[in-house]
């Protein structure tokens, strides 16, 4: 098959005009290797094609072009590719795109890789956001493989806000991307997402993300899961003061592996729970090398600071007033009075404790939490939780309905309860009517009441 | 309107009494809703038993305090029909019942009788005369079961004996009545009324209550918007300025600051937050139930091992 420009273009236009996109897809995949070699033709072909009508063809050519760019290529080629992708996304036709989603996502993996190599990650962030929007196609809660790329770029560029918009949404659907979405992408998403949250000091969400990465069903432990587990331990110590045990659905290979290989982190957790800052610091210096190699030293230092804070917080439960020297002694801190005062002031400013320092008598007075929970903000936050929960409930109901009409399911139920056929039919109709009627009524009322709340 | 019947003239006043209006009558009647319910129950029962509506008769009991008569309860009376179709009340039965009631309720007396039907007829007057021989100065209570709920379907009459043209005539004069009740009675009657009205049991009473509140709040809201629209058009000069209207709107607005105050706001929020928290708990429960159902189905679909404790698979 000769691959002159005209032949190729005519093939693409023919297939597109006849709307035989699957055939075009197959054709392009077959001749992938062949076309790959003729780099110079790519630009010529692209010029001849119209983005809107021949989106699929354009996409494949772009993919080839992207894979041709190597570390040695100049920066201009990379930026040119990015420009072309932006134009493509603004004009492409979604139906054609749906046939080659994996190919599309691959281009962005490649671009991320190139940008990170050249140490200019910040350039790619906007492009990745656009790509995610295109792939999600109006469903903000679907996960694509480009999410992981976006988080990676944001972390490398230390610019976290753009990623927050995409990871704050709960995932309820995973985009298969024509079979090219793998566990790697899912794990990277959760790992990088967790790191973004850790950097933003939103430890609760970070913990959730790390946990998701570690508890992924697995038959072999992946490196991403190991790294995620290390950070999980550290964030758990900062947030809760103890190592929160992993849920029961963690796969057994992971739990066994953790028991055998994560000894330094386990020791850190046990030492933290004992409460002595000096011992903790001794342990940290002992395992210094491991922590530094894992690039976790910053987090470990934060863990040490949080131990001091936690000791002071424990004091608020026992004493009402205390002199500054006593605080140092009882909380086993190894700092002098001025440092302690500074630390206390910082904690008071961040609302971690409620206290007052009397300069004259050098006493600290601990107050109760003045929060009465009787303000509008509390109401709004509870209301938001209720709404979130109702959304989740609706989603589960939809899934419920989908399973109930699945013929395989009906077949299985019939075979398991065959002597009670009539009861079963009655139960089916009953559940269908009660589950669909009771909740919408209450939720409709609630939404009407909420209207007055605003 | 005069009916001439067997030489006796019966006069019925033409104007129907409206409760709350001042009208003629020597005393005021306070009516308990229990009586109304009893009478309607009696009538409905007989109608169901005999497949056709029937006129029912019964006695009213209550307390009398000077000019005020409180009618608290009622019971049914036995009667026989003779050849002319005249109704004769069984006095024996009446005395027995009176004895029994006196034993339980010492200070409650018989004060009248009731019947169903539309307008006053001579039959009613005849029965009334019979009752007059048992009780002095009875009142007559008439319930019209076929009337629409908004119009007058309850009438109370008292009898007055007039000397006219040398004959003794019994006249039935309409009386005013007011409804009165006590807490326990109100709750009970309300419950019964609700039980007869609700068709489905799946609707919770809380949501019905909320629904009625919601509709009343919506009504208030639309009316306030209406007034606001009027004020805006006056301000824009589209409508003429009516000072009296503006004064009444101003008076309405003056009422609002009564609802302000810091203490009130914090208390309101306290309660509001508590209720919203409970709502959250309820929502979580429902969500857990949905989740449970889904997990059962999912396990069944994918042949996952069912836990020992729930060995018996119930498809819910």
Describe the structure.
The complex is a heterodimer of chains A (454) and B (316). Chain A has 24 helices and 5 strands. Chain A has 454 residues and is mainly alpha-helical. In chain A, the strands form 2 sheets. A 3-stranded antiparallel sheet of chain A has the order 3-5-4. A two-stranded parallel ribbon of chain A has the order 1-2. In chain A, strand 4 (355-358) and strand 5 (363-366) form a beta hairpin. Chain A is elongated and about 90 Å long. Chain B is of the alpha/beta class and 316 residues long. Chain B has helices at 33-50, 91-104, 122-134, 183-197, 205-236, 243-254, 262-301, and strands at residues 2-5, 8-12, 28-31, 57-65, 68-76, 79-81, 87-89, 109-116, 139-143, 154-164, 167-175, 177-179. In chain B, the strands form 2 sheets. Chain B has a 10-stranded mixed sheet with strand order 1-2-11-10-9-8-4-5-3-12. A two-stranded antiparallel sheet of chain B has the order 6-7. Chain B is extended and about 85 Å long. Classes of the chains: A mainly alpha (454), B alpha/beta (316). The A-B interface holds A 372-376, 378-379, 382-383, 385-386, 389-390, 392-393, 396-397, 399-400, 403-404, 406, 408-409, 412-413, 416-417, 424, 427-428, 431, 434-435, 437-439, 441-442, 445-446, 448-449, 452 and B 202-203, 207, 210-211, 214, 217, 266-267, 269-270, 272-273, 276-277, 279-280, 283-284, 286-287, 290-291, 293-294, 297-298, 300-301, 303, 313, 315-316.
